[in-house]
Amino acid sequence: MYLHNPNIKLPEDPDTVVWKYLDLSKFLDLLLSKKLFLSRSDKFEDQFEGTFSEPTYEEIKKLSENNPEFLAYYKTHREKVVVSSWHINEYESFAMWQIFTQNSEGLAIQSTIGRLQKALEAEKEFQQYIGEVNYIDYKKEYIPFDDMFFPFLFKRKSFQYEREVRIIADISSENIKINDGLKIDVDINQLIEKIYIHPKSENWYKRLVIELVSKLGFDFEIEKSDLESDILI
């Protein structure tokens, strides 16, 4: 279930467009399972995920001098926070295609902030929040630690191009151990507004995706990306 947290920043307009770029196998897994995968925060490629900036870390170290469990908790907490990353953009992104799809058989899910919020209502066991990522200088700027989600909603400025919004959940209170991540129930028809197919894909691939989606009982609008459209002169 989606919960609102007043401490977490989010675009005010629920119609703000968001995207998720993924390969065909992950897309089919989403449709077949009707579950969205959230990755364990310490499994991301960026080793700074879920950590603090230098000014904040120095403050936490001082607070931990007489309470070493305080710092130890923050270090292990990353294993209990799971994240699904989405990209805020009114239009599809050429850079995102290149970074998040390995070949010409990738897909992009187009959705909105409001759709994400409604889609998450299907999950009854785990609570999720949605937050926009802040991009800061980790050597100079301060990350507040009065909210347990803040370390997971800040990234280094070199990642600003991602314009990321995150579905995020903390399973610390649950007596479960996760390896790579966690799957949660979602309303697929709410989650997905439209599907775009990789700009370099062949026509047979578009037909295949349309057929697969139809056989699985969905009727999303599916389009070939227009980033490779013929030039007009």
Task: Write up what this structure looks like.
This is DUF2971 domain-containing protein. With about 230 residues, the chain is of the alpha+beta class. Helices cover about 25% and strands about 25% of the residues. Strands 1, 2, 3, 4, 5, 8, 9, 10 and 11 form a nine-stranded mixed β-sheet that branches. A two-stranded parallel sheet has the order 6-7. Helix 7 links the parallel strand 10 and strand 11 (about 220-225). About 25% of the residues are buried. The model has no long low-confidence stretch (mean pLDDT about 90).
Strand percentage lies at: 15-25%
User: How would you sum up the major sheet?
Assistant: 9 strands, mixed
Uncertain stretches: none
Classification by helices and strands: alpha+beta
Q: Element order, helices and strands?
A: EHEHHEHEHEEEEEHEHE
Radius of gyration, whole Å: 19 Å
Number of discrete domains: 1
Q: Ends: how far apart? A: 51 Å
Query: How many H/I helices?
Result: 7
Shape: globular
The tally of beta strands, per DSSP, is 11
The portion of residues assigned to helices is: 25-40%
Mean pLDDT: 88
Protein name: DUF2971 domain-containing protein
